[in-house]
Specification:
The chain has a single domain, classed as Trefoil (Acidic Fibroblast Growth Factor, subunit A), CATH 2.80.10.50. It is mainly beta. The radius of gyration is 20 Å and the shape is globular. The longest helix has 6 residues. Strands 3, 6, 7, 8, 9, 10, 11, 12 and 15 form a 9-stranded antiparallel β-sheet that branches. It has a 4-stranded antiparallel β-sheet with strand order 4-5-14-13, with no helix packed on it. A two-stranded antiparallel ribbon has the order 1-2.
């Protein structure tokens, strides 16, 4: 005698086609597929804009004049939104920015045992078949701030984009939350 497992098992609808060929309806692949793009500036809690300087391998939040903002060099980000089969994690996004006719994408890499945020020359892919170091999950910062978000690194649970003061710079970093319910203002990004 065999006991049935009480777990729910997801089932897919099937149809029989010509010559009784079996095929499945409404299956989605696990790949991330680009759904839409948004053009935005990213601001920290001090209303500074994120500015990318690929020549210096640096991204930092800075005070920017209206005239500098008009030029837009390294400040206007394209947020690439992807469709996902696991929406509970947050909306998967990737970031890119244009500088002097070239496109740079944000990614995270390990260096000396620490995760570093980098901007590399190249395009963001339309489809990502598996895990990727360019994907972040966009989440509400708090329920009362509709334009403020935090971005969790897809390959590091509990690690978020944030800024860290380094001399006179507020450098873009990847920061680990101490507790899941912690509210860390350095991770608050307004779009």
């Amino acid at each position: 005698r065999v006991k049935m497992n009480p777990e729910e098992i997801p089932v897919c609808a099937v149809k029989l086609g010509k010559k009784f060929c079996l095929y499945f309806d409404e299956l989605e692949c696990d790949a991330l597929c680009k759904e839409k793009t948004l053009l935005r500036v990213l601001r920290n809690v001090k209303s500074q804009l994120l500015v990318v300087r690929p020549d210096l391998n640096l991204a930092a939040f800075e005070d920017v004049t209206d005239q500098e903002m008009q030029s837009g060099q390294g400040m206007h980000f394209t947020i690439h939104c992807y469709k996902t089969t696991t929406p509970s994690a947050g909306m998967p996004v990737a970031f890119s920015v244009q500088m002097e006719g070239k496109s740079y994408y944000m990614c995270c890499e390990e260096e000396c045992g620490q995760m570093i945020v980098r901007f590399k020359e190249g395009e963001v892919p339309k489809e990502i078949p598996g895990e990727s170091n360019i994907i972040f999950f966009k989440k509400m910062f708090t329920s009362c701030c509709s334009r403020a978000f935090k971005f969790e690194y897809s390959l590091g649970a509990g690690m978020f984009l944030a800024f860290e003061e380094e001399g006179c710079l507020r450098k873009l970093i990847l920061k680990k939350l101490a507790r899941k319910d912690e509210v860390d203002e350095t991770m608050k990004i307004n779009l």
